[in-house]
Amino acid sequence: MRKLTTALCSAGLIAMFSAAPAVADNHADQIAMGKAVYMGKSRGNCISCHAIDDPDANLAGNQGPPTIAMKQRFPDKRKLRAQIWDASQNNPLTIMPPLGKHWILSEEEIDAVVEYIYQF
Amino acid sequence: MKIIKTLALGLTVAAATQMTHAADSGFDLKTVDPEADRMALQKYYKDRFPKAEISDYVNGIYAVDAASREQWVELEEFPPYEFDVEKGEELFNTPFANGKGYADCFENGGIGIRQNYPYWSKEEGTVKTLEQEINECREKNGEKKLRWGKGEIAQVSAYMAWTSRDKVFDIKVPEGDKDAMAAYLEGKKFFYTKRGQLNLSCANCHLQGSNVFIRADLPSPMLGHVTHFPVFRSKWGELGTLHRRYSGCHKDSRSKPLKPQHETFRNLEYFQTYMSNGLVVNGPGARK
Predict the structure, then answer these.
(1) Domain shared by B61 and B193, yes or no
(2) What tens digit of pLDDT does each residue of B36-91 get?
(3) Which residues of chain A neighbour B255 with C-beta distances below 8 Å?
(4) Is the predicted pLDDT of residue B22 greater than 80, yes or no?
(5) For A103, nearest residue in chain B (alpha carbons)
């Protein structure tokens, strides 16, 4: 019995340690997903209106403000997320589509794009 | 000092809010005033692009963006719609099976009348467009209706516009006619109402957003929008009618697009053409 417990515990410990790098990988995956959403015409298509200092972004539009200094502009990440989810809350005349409210992006995709743009 | 600063800031914000409201008459039958709307729209563009002449807005985005104008002027040297005008003339002058022709259906034999469309028909209680009357003319004479979006109907319409070039649009909302005013109002509301999954109004892109980049595209100004239709669009690679363009635009907002000549689209055309009163017919046009 005792042997079994030890075995289980060590298996758990190994799992815990090996899980740590997996979390980091998840974040990189999330950022990659956010980038794909930002650039994808049939997804977020954020690039059609918001310039961003990413070497892969070409011919960005300027209907909206550039994606720059996001941490300073949105110290509270939740406010940034809310703006993406439904910008018409703050400005009913805004041209920005309510990406969450109208199910244009999934909640997961919105989280991902927040993480991606928070780097800029 | 702080008070002055606050006041100045307040004024700027107020001015900016006004910028996004070109239409300054109301959205109900009591307060709507087409002429006030038209003047407000001209003022809006005068303030926003001071260098552009109002009369030049018949040329769409090329009135306000020098770089695209250059390409367009080159394109116009050999206008892509030229063959369509010729084909349209041929169709226009080919008699129907009963010996009659388009010329018998229209005022002045159908020549030089584009500027009068669309108009409010009191008898029918609806807005009539040129394309609609082209098809009605055919049906009256025992011919089949043409499809609304492209092909022969666009060619006949293009020829009729061609013979009307430089005539001034003078669309009327007959005084005291509540139904006509209601049609105008419906068109105006459609223009300013957000719709579709993308929650876009026509005004979002073509008023606030005119001449501002969406990716590499510059949305055209609303003023002068209808004067050059039908249009040869490079994206289509052919000629198309105004309502074909409406359907496309409608779809771009991820709405379920209405069919050409739907009453709502005719009302929109009524409103938009009224807004372009005082500008000349320059159809058919060439656009990206």
Answers:
(1) yes
(2) 999 999 999 999 999 999 999 999 999 999 999 999 999 999 999 999 999 999 99
(3) none
(4) no
(5) B197
Coil, strand or helix at A108: helix
Q: What is the rounded CA–CA span in Å between residue B117 and residue B133?
A: 10
CB B169 within 8 A of CB B279: yes
Instruction: Please state the φ and ψ torsions of residue A14, each to the nearest 5 degrees.
Output: -60, -45
Give how far Cα B112 sits from Cα of A1, B57, B131, B163, B288, Å.
100, 21, 15, 5, 27
Verdict on whether the full-model pTM lies above 0.80:
yes
Q: B182 and B244: one domain?
A: yes
B249 catalytic? Reply is yes
Specify the higher pLDDT residue, B254 or B9. Answer: B254
Please state the length of chain B. 288
| pLDDT of A38 higher than 80 | yes
Q: Give me the CATH number covering residue A56.
A: 1.10.760.10
Flag whether pLDDT at B15 surpasses 50.
Answer: no
Of B20, B209, B215, the CB nearest to A59: B215
Mean pLDDT of chain B: 92
**Total number of domains in chain B:** 2
> CA-to-CA distance for B100 and A104, rounded, in angstroms?
53
Smallest Cβ–Cβ distance between B213 and the set A61, A97, A104 belongs to: A61
Report the gap between the CA of A17 and the closest CA in chain B (Å): 44
Which structural domain range is residue B139 located in? Answer: 82-162
Question: What is the distance in angstroms between the Cα of B175 and the nearest Cα belonging to chain A?
Answer: 32
Question: How many domains is chain A built from?
Answer: 1
Structural domain boundaries enclosing A32: 23-117
pLDDT tens for each residue of B107-121: 999 999 999 999 999
